Amino acid sequence: MSVEVQLSKHWPGGARIEAAFASHASTLALFGRSGSGKSTVVNALAGLLRPDTGRIVVDGVVLFDAARRINVPIEARGVGYVFQDGLLFPHMTVRQNLLYGARRAGTRSLSMQQVVALLGIGPVLARKPATLSGGEKQRVAIGRALLSNPRILLMDEPLASLDAGRRSEILGLIERVRDELKVRIVYVSHSVGEVTRLADEVVLMNGGQVVAHGAVEEMFNRADLRPHTGRFEGGALIEARAIAQDPHYRLTTFFFGDGGTLVAPGLDVPIGGRVRMRIRARDLTLATSRPEGLSIRNVLAGKVMAIESGDGPIAEVRVRVAGKEWPARISRLSVDEMGLMPGLSVYVLVKAIAFDKRSMGFTT
Amino acid sequence: MLSADEVAIILLSLKVAAVGAAFSLPFAIAAALILARTVFPGKALFDAIVHLPLVLPPVVTGYFLLLAFGRQGPLGKVFEEALGLTFAFRWTGAALAAGVMGFPLMVRAIQLALEAIDPRLELAARTLGAGRWRVLMSVTLPLALPGLLAGTALAFARALGEFGATITFVSSIPGETQTLPLAIYNLTQSPDGDAAILRLCALSVTLSLGALMLSEWMTRRLRVRPS
After folding, report:
1. How far does the CA of residue A358 sit from the closest CA of chain B (Å)?
2. Which of the residues A58, A74, A124, A131 would you substitute to probe the B interface, choosing the one with the greatest number of B C-beta atoms within 10 Å?
3. Which residues from A are below 8 Å from B when comparing CB atoms?
4. Which of B15, B8, B10 minimizes the C-alpha distance to B207?
5. pTM for the whole thing?
6. In this predicted structure, what is the pLDDT of residue B33?
7. Residues facing residue A22 across a β-bridge
């Protein structure tokens, strides 16, 4: 997939959006706070909003070009859109909703059975949207968009109106849509968890501007972007591969970087399966000698690279572990008492159960 | 029971009202779409013109119809020559007058129904590949159906009672343009019509009540619950 966006849009009140990026990622996330302009960009991609200037190209097809006066109508763009609140047609059954866009579908299309089976919506096909739960509505909305055979699927905060349980369920389904149906996705979200689980690349937006654009691992590990990626959510993002399972204790061992291993709970990832793991800075503990008699499963050798601290109680220590740099958030008092300084060898401790379903996502 | 004359009057009234309401429906939908979905300079004036028959003396509306659609009227000539359709002093003219008088009520009901529809549903339909016409036919109008039915029923009920514009435009010709209200008025002009008048009045009340209750029932049955 290729998506090229270059646009500006001004509103009478003075608000303005200026965004430019080009991406070949199979899943691209537009990430930022509400009001950062990410929805504007995705609406411009779909044709729901017309930029003042600029150019939008998807897979080599020019959808909008202000200079050449091209503005392909919404229905001709071949762009699927999953809205935050589903927007199912209330007067139609689930089946009619799903088939609404099927007219456009060409030979490359997904079959109804395939989509219904993957999304698990077989039992509700004859029902009206008003009788569905929030999670079911979103499944149908995703299925409806998929069956219109879009060249690209846009999702604008598709989990925002769901509770936590439904959220992780739908997130898992979106992963399967991406991996099994090979659908390319542009995903809009303000949630670090969703973006780090799903995306390959991230366009970070703030105040109507693109702040940075890059691979998801790089973006969430960059210290200079921390004000935007969120201080409380700060942490490292690593790509890991499952190398061993312990069925008795229900633990899986992962390999990452150049020789690091981590143990995480659950047996969801088959051996050889790749995941992206998020390690929050506040879940890390540092020790100057190898600790013993501890319940903590993950003890990794590392080296202090840098220490950032101010007058506050918290300091951030950047530690190099297996070739990756992780931020650890500990108290400033501990930094001083332990005599931490750049170059010092330390042990990094992570509880196995710090990794839950929400901090791990499958990757391809 | 009913006399042959009374049955003829009722059938004529129903025909005039039904045809009038049916033919103003597409125009009312178009006007309601313009009012509910577009912004343009002069929209307030357009809105006022649509609602004019509601406030204008019916006699004035009827006279304008006579000027425009009479034998010598510009529109009347066009219809007569192109379609062989004559309005002057025919039941078709009575239907036209009924339709025009019910038009604002119909537009109002449809406009309210359209404004209650989330416009993003229409956008969602377009992202699924539907053009504007398909969106209108498959999403907008079905969702506005309760409003369409309510508007049509209201206009129909209003048409059953239409008097001033009709008598001005097409006069009161028994068997051709003399609908129920015109027949009642005609009887009031004769000295011994009291019993007949009361019978026709009772019929009028029955018809109007029936039309209103039918529309209420249809609206309730077809109301789509919000998602």
Report:
1. 29
2. A74
3. 46-48, 73-81, 83, 86-91, 100-101, 103-104, 128-130, 137, 144-145, 148
4. B10
5. 0.78
6. 95
7. A4
Is residue B214 packed enough to be buried (19+ CB in 10 Å), middle (13-18) or exposed (0-12)? middle
Count the helices and strands in chain A (H runs, E runs). Answer: 9, 21
A68-72, A312-316, A350-354 — most confident range: A68-72
Could you give the CA distance from residue B201 to residue B203 in angstroms, rounded to a whole number?
A: 5
pLDDT for A197 equals: 85
| B139 neighbourhood in chain A, CB within 8 Å | 89
CA dihedral of residues B60, B65, B67, B70 (deg, nearest 10)? -140
- The secondary structure of A286-324 as a DSSP string is EESS---S-S--EEEEEEEEEEEE-SSSEEEEEEEETTE
Q: Is residue A205 within 8 Å of A174, Cβ to Cβ?
A: no
CB atoms within 10 A of CB B78: 12
Give the C-alpha separation, A185 to A31, whole Å.
Answer: 14
Whole-number Å distance between alpha carbons of B37 and B131: 16
What one-letter code names the amino acid at B56? L
pLDDT in tens, B61-114: 999 999 999 888 889 888 888 888 889 889 999 999 999 999 999 999 999 999
- What is the distance between the alpha carbons of residues A320 and A322, in angstroms, rounded to a whole number? 7
Confirm or reject contact between B221 and chain A (CB < 8 A): no
Non-local CB neighbours of A2 within 8 Å, separated by 6+ positions? A22, A23, A24, A57, A58, A59, A60
**Torsion sign over Cα A72, A77, A79, A85:** positive
Residue A255's φ and ψ, nearest 5 degrees, are -110, 140
Residues 6+ apart with CB under 8 A from A190: A31, A32, A33, A34, A36, A38, A157
Q: Which two tokens stand for residue A219?
A: 């973006």
Nearest to A89 among B131, B139, B225 (CB): B139
- Using the beta-carbon criterion (under 8 Å), do B227 and A101 form an inter-chain contact? no
Contact list in A for residue B128 (CB cut-off 8 A) is 75, 80, 100-101, 104, 144-145, 148
